[in-house]
């Protein structure tokens, strides 16, 4: 089985009151690096190891993952997905998915991180079809 990781920008937020109070440039506004709807696809193959190249060439339509701070915040989840691991067992409603955000508290970017399973044999395809990756509320880890 091979694995890919899809990172989708769900939202960009901005908190002007926090920027006004704490930033050197209180008018900095929303994050200039990301836009809602952008999709980045990571893979680890002999030809393309986009994880270790820090997201180079992962933006759909061409381009790189644009922010080191955001990469630092989500890279552990991307790595887990690329290894075939459970990104968030007992937390999200699908253990192959995680909702995370960057570290900028005044203009955070919200990401959906998904493990994409790519079966290489009919046996893997059959096994994958039989799996239940759902996490349910009665089993949820709530901190």
UniProtKB/TrEMBL annotation:
Highest taxon above the source species: Bacteria
Ranges for region Disordered: 124-143
UniProt-listed InterPro entries: CHP04076 (IPR023811)
Protein name from the UniProt record: TIGR04076 family protein
Organism the protein comes from: Olsenella uli (strain ATCC 49627 / DSM 7084 / CCUG 31166 / CIP 109912 / JCM 12494 / LMG 11480 / NCIMB 702895 / VPI D76D-27C) (Lactobacillus uli)
Organism ancestry: Bacteria, Bacillati, Actinomycetota, Coriobacteriia, Coriobacteriales
């Amino acid at each position: 089985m091979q694995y890919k990781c899809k990172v989708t920008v769900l939202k960009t937020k901005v908190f002007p009151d926090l920027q006004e109070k704490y930033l050197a440039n209180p008018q900095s506004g929303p994050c200039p690096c990301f836009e809602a709807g952008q999709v980045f696809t990571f893979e680890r193959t002999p030809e393309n190891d986009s994880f270790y190249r820090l997201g180079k060439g992962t933006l759909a339509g061409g381009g790189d993952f644009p922010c080191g701070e955001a990469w630092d915040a989500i890279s552990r989840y991307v790595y887990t997905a690329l290894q075939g691991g459970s990104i968030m067992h007992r937390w999200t409603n699908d253990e192959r998915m995680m909702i995370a955000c960057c570290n900028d508290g005044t203009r955070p970017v919200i990401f959906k991180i998904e493990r994409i399973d790519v079966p290489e044999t009919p046996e893997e395809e059959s096994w994958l079809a039989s799996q239940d990756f759902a996490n349910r509320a009665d089993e949820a880890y709530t901190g």
